[in-house]
Amino acid sequence: MLSILHDAEEHDADTINEGTSLVRANLLTALILAAEDTTSITLTWALSLLFYNRDAMRKVQQELNFHIGKHRLLVTESDTKNLVYLQSIIKETLHLYPAIPLSGIHKTTEDCTINGLFQLALGLFSIFKKFIVIHLGKLF
């Protein structure tokens, strides 16, 4: 969406007005807030999981101390390539507790049955709750 607004501004500057700029500003604000919210949700779950798994917490602390050191308070994006264990914690957290609860819209390309329980007709649009698909993997 942002690229469309940007392209429109570059190619047809006469049609860009204050309203378009307002739409772009509102869209950027919404995207930033959404990114902030999903990040905070994921970090909250990760910290909660680490709190209940002291061994994993110690491993993360050791990895941070080794690669970052105790003298630095902030981890930068360039540091993350060395923080393999922390990356796996975040990935597993996203797997267990997805910040965005619903999948994208899917359309069936043929009639199908999921595990003998759910019949989906050709052309059916569906949205799945990620948490259920992840935690009830036997069905899916």
UniProtKB/TrEMBL annotation:
* Claim: Zinc is one of the keywords in the record: no
Q: Print the keywords alphabetically.
A: Heme, Iron, Metal-binding, Monooxygenase, Oxidoreductase
Q: Per its UniProt record, what InterPro entries does this chain match?
A: Cyt_P450, Cyt_P450_E_grp-I, Cyt_P450_sf, Plant_Cytochrome_P450_Monoox
Oxidoreductase in keyword set: yes
List the GO molecular function terms. heme binding; iron ion binding; monooxygenase activity; oxidoreductase activity, acting on paired donors, with incorporation or reduction of molecular oxygen
The record ties this protein, via Pfam families, to: p450 (PF00067)
Top-level division of the source organism's lineage:
Eukaryota
Please give the Gene3D superfamilies that the UniProt record associates with this protein: Cytochrome P450
Q: Which PANTHER family match?
A: CYTOCHROME P450 82C3-LIKE, CYTOCHROME P450 82C3-RELATED
Concerning its family, UniProt says:
Belongs to the cytochrome P450 family.
| Name the record gives this protein | Cytochrome P450
The organism is Gossypium barbadense
